[in-house]
Design goal:
With 335 residues, the chain is an alpha/beta fold. The protein is 44% helix and 20% strand.
Length: 335
């Protein structure tokens, strides 16, 4: 007796053309060497059209075209930062029918070596961002608290980050790191909980203010280092905990800092982040020295995942001035 033909999957039949269109767009977008280089660069940072045009030494109109093709294929996402639009590489959704292809594509792209000239121009862009931020804090150190109060002063999030710290399981209490300690208030919370605390800041002026505050707290276990998270002398730190309070939106490459911090933590070590959620208040750039107008929660999640962290608890607080704060917990995964 002959068997009956298998029933036609009507839903799959209807979806097939959509998948084919998406596949064609993806393959087209990936079919250009420059676009692959752009995807490689956008893996760990966000850039504007003009920045990318400078980095790859190409016309802005040409770069805009390439980004449009990549965006239409869903390979990059964008968001507005004041009057500028910044692009970053998309993170494929778990239910994306092209997930295996995109994962393989990105993995292969990330193995490519970035040209030395491109790296130099990238370094120039990041140096300009860092100089803008550092100059702001050098010039405005005496106004720091007033400017901080415009958006979110330390007392606003102090209880939330302190509570998260107290509820965070740690592999030990030997060493903690605070990146960008501001005027030093949270150092006074961290220091009694650890044998040694490292306070790290790229601004000598702000580090001096934090050290001056701590001198009045009778705390002797804090080392103040004028440098950044990529400093070679920190590579053997092997910290149990790292804290970054309201710092990432002042930095040229938040993703790079998160990745560097991962290298400074021991397995199971915790990274605690307090940050602004994304907003559209352009005035914060000039008034508060902000490089970025906050971040989407997914930004921090994705950067941390890429750096080898697992996500823990999160808390979100809406402020009366319209801003929102996110307090996040991440743990460094084992090898």
């Amino acid at each position: 007796m002959s068997s009956s033909p298998a029933p036609i999957n009507t839903a799959a039949q209807q979806d097939a053309p959509v998948i084919q269109v998406e596949l064609a767009a993806t393959l087209k977008a990936a079919g250009d060497p420059l676009r692959l280089e752009i995807l490689r660069l956008l893996a760990q940072d966000s850039f504007g059209v003009m920045e990318l045009a400078r980095i790859f030494a190409t016309k802005q109109s040409g770069m805009s075209h390439h980004l449009k093709v990549l965006a239409q294929a869903g390979l990059v996402t964008s968001r507005r930062e004041g009057n500028s639009i910044f692009y970053r590489r998309a993170l494929p959704a778990s239910d994306n029918p092209l997930l295996s292809l995109l994962t393989s594509l990105f993995s292969t792209v990330d193995q490519a070596v970035i040209d030395t000239d491109v790296l130099q121009r990238l370094s120039d862009i990041q140096a300009e961002r860092a100089a803008t931020s550092e100059n702001f804090f050098t010039d405005n150190a005496t106004k720091f608290r007033a400017q901080q109060d415009l958006i979110a002063s330390y007392p606003v999030y102090a209880e939330a980050i302190s509570e998260l710290l107290n509820n965070t399981p740690l592999p030990g209490t030997q060493i903690a790191l605070e990146v960008g300690p501001g005027e030093g208030e949270f150092l006074a919370v961290l220091a009694p909980k650890f044998q040694k605390l490292v306070a790290l800041d790229t601004s000598r002026t702000m580090l001096d203010k934090a050290e001056s505050f701590i001198q009045g707290q009778a705390l002797k276990n804090i080392e103040f280092i004028h440098s950044d998270t990529g400093d070679a002398q920190l590579q053997s730190l092997n910290a149990d905990c790292a804290v970054v309070n309201m710092v990432l939106h002042h930095t040229p490459s938040p993703a790079a800092i998160i990745a560097q911090i991962a290298g400074l933590l021991k397995t199971g070590g915790a990274l605690l982040i307090t940050e602004l959620c994304h907003h559209d208040q352009q005035w914060a750039r000039e008034a508060c020295g902000d490089v970025w107008l906050g971040f989407e929660p997914d930004d921090l999640s994705n950067w941390s995942l890429e750096a080898g962290f697992s996500e823990g608890q999160s808390q979100y607080m809406a402020l009366r001035n319209g801003f929102q704060i996110q307090v996040r917990q991440f743990f460094k995964d084992g090898a």
